[in-house]
Write a structure and sequence with these properties.
9 helices; globular
Length: 255
């Protein structure tokens, strides 16, 4: 069994850092790099790309809404064309930095509120999927299963890598529980280990209501801003490898 571990990386700004990016980069197989709108800056982006190249980790763009103060988690009203241009700008910036560092961008993974918009709105999903395909038809779109962006990406011939979020609670409808609610973010290594083992063994997750639901996913996500993210990612890798699995990047998983 091959499965990915991915994380949203480089989500500091200037002298501020969210986590130990270097340690986390040694654990994961795919890095979703913040492109300067919700977090990150050119220096951080360059550092992430060069570190990923050194560690043999694939790099993807992690575009978000232009909301540094709110970390990209606040909704900003914009139409599909505006959202498209904000996304394209960020992907292009990371592509240039990656080329300068001798690395390449392989995927796109949407951040927070921007992700919610393309997951739920079919028109926005169609517009951004077409734009991604225009930039590079070989890009892989990272997404939760059953989102509008999954349908839209497949419609234009893009590959999809579906995600299981090991550090976020699900409800019985398969949606993420709002971060405003208690126990929506999972920080216990024991709880993450149990969730990952359950997912690997049966393809299910226990919801916040206590029910068991199916999760179709090929890569496991740990958010770098979750407290203890390095230890949580290490736990995920340990559970995979102890179960006889192999951690692999997205391009390998989808070959």
């Amino acid at each position: 069994m091959k499965i990915g571990i991915n994380s949203d990386m480089g989500e500091g700004f200037g002298n501020y850092r969210i986590c130990d990016d270097e340690a986390l980069m040694s654990i994961i197989s795919s890095a979703n790099v913040a492109c300067g709108f919700h977090a990150g800056d050119p220096i951080i982006m360059d550092r992430m790309v060069r570190l990923a190249k050194q560690k043999g980790v694939e790099v993807g763009a992690h575009p978000g809404l232009p909301d540094l103060l709110g970390f990209g988690r606040r909704v900003i009203q914009m139409d599909a064309a505006e959202l498209e241009k904000h996304m394209v700008y960020q992907i292009g910036a990371l592509q240039a930095i990656a080329a300068n560092a001798g690395h390449r961008v392989t995927h796109v993974s949407f951040h927070a509120a921007m992700g919610n918009m393309v997951n739920a709105d079919p028109d926005m999903a169609d517009v951004v999927a077409r734009a991604i395909a225009t930039i590079n038809r070989d890009f892989i779109v990272f997404s939760q299963p059953d989102a509008e962006i999954v349908r839209a990406a497949r419609k234009v011939g893009l590959r999809i890598l579906t995600l299981f979020l090991a550090d976020r609670a699900y409800d019985e409808n398969g949606h993420l529980v709002s971060r405003k609610l208690p126990n929506s973010v999972i920080t216990s290594t024991e709880a993450v280990a149990e969730r990952v083992k359950r997912f690997l063994d049966s393809g299910t997750v226990k919801t916040i209501e206590g029910k068991s639901i199916k999760v179709e996913a090929r890569s496991i996500l740990i958010h770098s801003d979750t407290p203890g993210s390095v230890e949580l990612a290490g736990t995920v890798r340990r559970v995979i490898e102890q179960g006889g699995g192999e951690v692999a990047p997205a391009t390998v998983l989808l070959n």
